[in-house]
């Protein structure tokens, strides 16, 4: 997979991409990152990438020209006319697990990172294929949400994780939350690991884990169970 980030603040991305799973995926030649400075696609001597909004109002808007020029270069490099262009935005569809699975099938992902007041609408209407929100709040720019989306996606690229079973047991994989997990020591400050996890009986352990996941999902995200079965698992005890 090739992931391209078009941004006015490339160092925000480069620092994160050089650490942890991002770095491992790159070193193992499973994912390649390309961080492009939006200013490199300007033509004026001041390398201006933003301007005031038409009609007045506060804030600055990223100009369309640099994004269109970057897109033209991408078409030339990738060698095809259509590919996923993601614009992280509070106005987008809320990001979820199913999106990560679909995006992980792509060979090329492009992130247009907004900043200031946002990106000229002509870019969104004509170049962006997926406008995605990571939640109902506003960040200063699109760099951090781009990293969030990319991180969630590359976990599903074969070989990135030491064992894919780790991703398969994450929250949302089967529309339930992940249950409690424990590690050594067996007892810490009088706080003990549940006996069932020490029993060696894998059937009992699997049953306990499923029950814990169901309980946690009922308590915290009951709507996930409704969407899965069409039933209301609420009951008198929640």
Describe this structure in words.
With 238 residues, this protein is α/β, with parallel strands linked by helices. The chain has 2 domains: 153 residues, SPOUT methyltransferase, trefoil knot domain (Alpha/beta knot), CATH 3.40.1280; 61 residues, Trp Operon Repressor, Chain A. The protein is built from 9 helices and 9 strands. Helix 4 crosses helix 6. The two termini are 43 Å apart. The C terminus is likely disordered.
Task: Give the SSE layout.
Blueprint: E1 2-7, H1 10-17, H2 20-27, E2 32-37, E3 50-51, E4 61-62, H3 64-78, E5 84-94, H4 97-103, E6 108-112, H5 121-126, E7 130-133, H6 143-154, H7 165-168, E8 187-188, E9 191-192, H8 202-220, H9 222-229
Parallel strand pairs: 1-2, 1-6, 5-6, 5-7
Antiparallel strand pairs: 3-4, 8-9
Helix pairs in contact: 4-6, 8-9
The number of domains is 2
Number of helices: 9
Biggest sheet: strand arrangement: 2-1-6-5-7
Mean pLDDT: 90
Proportion in helices? 25-40%
According to CATH, the fold-level topology of the largest domain is Alpha/beta knot
The overall strand count is: 9
Order of helices and strands: EHHEEEHEHEHEHHEEHH
- The computed structural class is alpha/beta
Q: What would you call the shape?
A: elongated
Reported CATH architecture of the largest domain: 3-Layer(aba) Sandwich
DSSP strand content? 15-25%
The biggest beta sheet, please? 5 strands, parallel
Question: What is the name of the CATH superfamily of the largest domain?
Answer: SPOUT methyltransferase, trefoil knot domain
Cα-based radius of gyration, to the nearest Å:
22 Å
Distance between the termini: 43 Å
Q: Please mark out the parts with pLDDT under 50 across 5 or more consecutive residues, or reply none.
A: 232-238
User: CATH class of the largest domain, anyone?
Assistant: Alpha Beta
């Amino acid at each position: 997979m090739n992931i391209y980030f078009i941004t006015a603040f490339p160092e925000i991305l480069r620092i994160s991409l050089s650490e942890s799973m991002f770095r491992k995926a790159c070193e193992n030649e499973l994912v390649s990152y390309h961080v492009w400075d939006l200013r490199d696609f300007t033509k004026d001597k001041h390398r201006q990438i933003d301007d005031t909004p038409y009609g007045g109002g506060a804030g600055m808007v990223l100009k369309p020209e640099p994004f269109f020029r970057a897109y033209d270069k991408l078409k030339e490099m990738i060698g095809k006319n259509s590919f996923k262009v993601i614009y992280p935005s509070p106005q987008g569809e809320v990001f979820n697990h199913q999106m990560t699975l679909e995006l992980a099938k792509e060979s090329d992902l492009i992130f247009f990172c907004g900043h200031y007041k946002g990106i000229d609408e002509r870019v969104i209407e004509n170049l962006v294929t997926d406008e995605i929100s990571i939640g109902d709040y506003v960040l200063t720019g699109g760099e951090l949400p781009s990293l969030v989306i990319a991180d969630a996606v590359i976990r599903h690229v074969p070989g990135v994780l030491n064992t894919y079973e780790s991703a398969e047991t994450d929250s949302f994989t089967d529309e339930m939350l992940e249950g409690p997990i424990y590690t050594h020591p067996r007892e810490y400050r009088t706080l003990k690991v549940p006996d069932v996890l020490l029993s060696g009986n894998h059937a009992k352990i699997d049953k306990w884990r499923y029950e814990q996941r169901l309980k946690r999902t009922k308590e915290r995200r009951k709507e996930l169970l409704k969407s899965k079965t069409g039933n209301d698992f609420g009951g008198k005890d929640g």
